[in-house]
Amino acid sequence: MNQADLENTIPHARGIEVHDALQTLDRVRSDRHIVITNQVSSRLWPTLCDHPLDLNYNPSAMGGAIPLGLGLALAQPDYEVIVISGDGSLLMNLGCLVTVVNSGATNLSIVLLDNGQYEVTGGQKTPGNHGADYAGLARASGFSCVHQFAEATAWRNAAASSLSGPGPRFIWLTIRPRPGDYGKAVGRPIQEQMANLRQQFRSDAR
After folding, report:
1. pTM (whole model) above 0.85
2. Tens of pLDDT along 176-192?
């Protein structure tokens, strides 16, 4: 995707730069936040943060990060869980929004990075590229705490409060598409991440 293509992607071309979005999230997360990333975010988050409660989850199939986060939220109610999902991954499993609300889990936040494209597979436009109302979908699914940001300063100013409202929470970030090849994940192997996560749970339980 060249720069002309990027500028023609509206409103995403005026959105938040993905690194800015993730850096803001890194600044406001606490030591009681489990953070699950997926696809593009799983490649970028390890360059910003290396925490034992991080799980950079990148299987070949899309759409599994939110169900994984829900399972952790139910199994570990003393922690807050943040799932960072792309719009393409969410579109693969929209039913998970209803499942999250129906579960009764209140310690789960979904942060949607919506750039309108399948970035890791070549920048193809998603079906939701032109006008999908993800905030409306979240509200219709039963989320009472829904926030939407398309500008970096607004996100920085409200990130902490957006993550502290009554859960479950849905935060929709409009992200600026960007050219480039993210390549392979740069974080720790998944087996090491899982071991670190279990060890942190045991340490915190003492």
Report:
1. yes
2. 987 665 555 567 888 89
* DSSP 8-class letter at 61: S
Q: Which domains does the chain have, with CATH numbers?
A: 3-205 (3.40.50.970)
* Average pLDDT of the residues in 4-29: 78
If one counts every other C-beta atom within 10 angstroms of the C-beta of residue 171, the result is 27
Between 178 and 112, the more confident residue is 112
